[in-house]
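hiii so my PI (J.) wants the whole complex modelled not just the main chain, which honestly fair. so below is everything: four entries, each one labled with what it is. i double checked the lines twice but i was tired so who knows lol
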Amino acid sequence: MSDETQSTGRTNEEAFLAAYDPRAYTPLAVTVDVALFTIRARALCVLAVRRANPPFAGHWCLPGGFLRPDDDGRFPTLAQAAAARLVAEAGINADALEGSDAPGVHLEQLGSYGDPGRDPRMAVVSVAYLAFAPNLPDPTPGAGATEAVWMPVAQTSEIHLAFDHDQILADALARTRGKLEYTPLATAFLPGSFTIGELQAVYETVWGEKLISSDFRRKVRHAKDFLFLTGRTTDRGGDRGGPRAELFRAGPARLLYPPILAAANERLVR
Amino acid sequence: MSDETQSTGRTNEEAFLAAYDPRAYTPLAVTVDVALFTIRARALCVLAVRRANPPFAGHWCLPGGFLRPDDDGRFPTLAQAAAARLVAEAGINADALEGSDAPGVHLEQLGSYGDPGRDPRMAVVSVAYLAFAPNLPDPTPGAGATEAVWMPVAQTSEIHLAFDHDQILADALARTRGKLEYTPLATAFLPGSFTIGELQAVYETVWGEKLISSDFRRKVRHAKDFLFLTGRTTDRGGDRGGPRAELFRAGPARLLYPPILAAANERLVR
DNA sequence: GCAATAGTGTCTCTTAGACAGTATGAG
DNA sequence: CTCATACTGTCTAAGAGACACTATTGC
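here's the output for the full assembly
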């Protein structure tokens, strides 16, 4: 910000700010888009909405919207703008977003996309967020959307998303797959308490790879502060029998050590 | 982008775009800031510039500038805007930025910062980049800056940078420390060929931690596609004697396996 | 009873950490 | 000659992959 300062050169800060006219420069917009993943019927799904309006009317894209001030003229933070998309379209109650430790929704910034021409209207920089949530109800389209669905990611390769949202989705997927290795974020796909079998299903679904259950069990139980025993078990065995499984909850770890590595031959590129 | 579409509701895309007026909305600016690290005199340094103009005139900050169109009205990509800062203020020639494999400069996006009030002029979203370069000449202040220096990061804790650049710098440092573990980016701090001792010095400088040289050597040599032997050695031993060291160059690996882990008791939080 | 799931144990191979030891060569 | 540095080797403990085995329970 040293160079290119849009400055009149005055030395008095207050006088400078009073005289500053932001409208003198070429307009540029910022949007916030969200790739929200959940697991439904053992398939990794992403929240997709169908656009009601041009550009790309009728096309699918990730939920998002322009960053702009509320009625009082105040802008939200980027994370608040992303969270607002989740509340509006995924039926997530705002409470779950607050306590980052609660078994609610995980939300993190993915990156920004600003290639010229990515939006036909004008120069638009999009700040993309990545979110994980436990199984959620059917989504409701917000304003500007005609439809909202949980779209299996296996299916997204056949559908071209509007803008550069294919790229954002690909980056979000790569980040998600990588983060399961060395962070406890897999638990963000599960409710507050869960079994090791359910946790394994998350890893298998996201990685698209079968894991050996005894080894998986040993790894997650050895990872420091990853899983805490609740002392309770499930009420009944699985659909086709089996013992009742112990219930765990996520521990305070923010980084897994040792990590839960995917098979070396499919090493994930981040 | 489904919701909040700044749309007139027309169904014809061309008519919509022709009628679209971007100036009808509250102005918002985007800046691109860069945290460029290098190693000088065995100290990790970051490029800092002193602001010539308000706001924060006279304060240190990271190099950066507004994202805006060139004379032809075309916006650069975000990465191009970041690269332009490096060319202008760090004396990096543009060639080194092109070939990402060349022993030039590493440039990656760090994240975006958009808290309201972070810039007193108006709403500003900053897209921050992280860059590493081998030892560089003394920097030259670009337009809008009165001074440009390589500032040892140990010293930055005493200096408050303008805007929220303290936060950006802290995030950049954390990312850098973490990435040395599982990517070959340490080589970006070194010229095209280097010794294992020099590579170890990079790790020790960035992590602020002494490493056992025999173990370090084994780890980096076992990491697949990390280091290739050039077949040459240094011209002479160290300042105080010793054999001539083998020279290596960076291999094609983009992810290190196995990773070069820092001591477990200082496990790095990403 | 069958079959699927939960959970334990064990064997082998590889790697990490710690550090001893040898060779080189600038001052 | 001295001593920091380059490089090799060795010992031990721990973890990973593979898989055998027991226990539980819904249908």
